[in-house]
Specification:
This protein has 4 helices and no strands. With about 100 residues, the protein is mainly alpha-helical.
Length: about 100
Amino acid sequence: MLDYMIYILAFAVGSILGLLYSYKKHGEPYVAVNEFDMPSAAVSIIGWCLAFNAGNVILQAIGFLLGGLIMGERPGYGRKETALGLILAIGLYVLLKLTA
């Protein structure tokens, strides 16, 4: 039960940090940038892969923090990067479960 509390807390902190980072990075009042952000995609992929596939509570919490960092950006930002990270992490999870 404590594990889930740590995951929820890490995701919430990551979402808040992502929102603060996004407001600092993008000053425009609406979504004006539609390009794919590679550093955010790398953070999202690493975060979600750790969250779903690490067997350690601390590594999974770090994964949820990183996933929440990108997912918690302002509305419209980070959506493509989050989707890519989730798709790859779920694919890796299924691949690992099929081979085990």
